[in-house]
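Per your request, structure below.
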């Protein structure tokens, strides 16, 4: 469940994409190689500029859950697109990864 609070207290210089730990996404998928695949989607490089962690969560779950995942992600993070999350909301990448991982786990169990 993703009802715990995720804060933006880890905000630093977010103008460049850095390495984001994807261990959470790997755990949700049960596959470290799959997690590594999503590493290249960080920093706004996921399709349509959505958050890479959200993209991974969507890729790891059944399509019938995608609307609910997008809604929960936006409710917690404030947006779906990397640029808005990082530049306007100052929502840190590690918090996005934590949220994406929790959503992937939640919806893989349904």
């Amino acid at each position: 469940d993703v009802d715990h609070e995720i804060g933006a207290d880890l905000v630093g210089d977010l103008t460049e994409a850095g390495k984001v730990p994807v261990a959470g996404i790997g755990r949700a998928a049960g596959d470290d190689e799959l997690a590594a695949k999503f590493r290249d989607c960080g920093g706004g490089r996921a399709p349509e500029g959505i958050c890479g962690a959200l993209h991974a969560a969507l890729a790891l779950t059944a399509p019938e859950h995608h609307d609910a995942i997008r809604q929960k992600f936006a409710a917690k993070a404030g947006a779906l697109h990397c640029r808005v999350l990082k530049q306007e909301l100052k929502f840190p990448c590690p918090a996005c990864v934590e949220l994406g991982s929790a959503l992937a786990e939640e919806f893989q169990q349904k």
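The chain is about 55% helix and 0% strand.

Regards,
D.
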